[in-house]
Amino acid sequence: MSREKEQTIALSAVFQAAELVSILAKTGKVDNESLKPLLDSILMLNAASTEDIYGGQWDCRSNLALGRRIAQQALGKERSSVNPDTLRYALSLIHLENKLSKTPEMLSQIGQSIINIEQKKAHYESVLHDNMLASISGMYQDTLSKLPFRIQVHGDSRFLQQPQISNQVRAILMAGIRAAMLWRQLGGKRWHLIFKRKALLSALEARH
């Protein structure tokens, strides 16, 4: 698999997280088929490949299809059709992860939290369980929320004030940070979204 292809898997996950936050904040609902692979990726510490982090064949309907489509629109000629909040969240996730990467103590704290949450998972049937979402949300609050740069989520306050939904929002942001970290580890940089758009688009559009 080419480096650009791997980068686009991570980028699709970033955009999927951004879009889900945007939808959830405005409607109070989110598609679990798009949500689950993102949340599972947070606990995936020893994947054999980039694809495996998101459940294998990444362009299947059930894992990163939503993020892949939005990434194609954002990098291509349909940029204006992408929700402005989604673009803002995606760029903010990349920016926030860059700040996190310079904070080794916080990275260590997140690593320990992930191990603890992974152990809890055995007690619940799915990472989508409210208690699992609350644990991932708590990890975000205890770490990333304390950095000077914060992602401001805009939406309907009737939804955002509900603890269950605010937990979901923070859990999705945590998954977005995981994807942004993978993007950086694979050599992705913010300026690539402008100057390497053609190569990234080609990789996004390839079927294999």
From TrEMBL:
Matches recorded under InterPro entries: HflD (IPR007451), HflD-like_sf (IPR035932)
Signal peptide residue numbers: none
Keywords, comma-separated and alphabetical: Cell membrane, Cytoplasm, Membrane
Pfam families cross-referenced by the UniProt entry: DUF489 (PF04356)
SUPFAM superfamilies, A to Z: YcfC-like
GO CC annotation: cytoplasm; plasma membrane
Location(s) in or outside the cell: Cytoplasm; Cell membrane
Membrane topology value: Peripheral membrane protein
Family in the record: Belongs to the HflD family.
Protein's name in the database: High frequency lysogenization protein HflD homolog
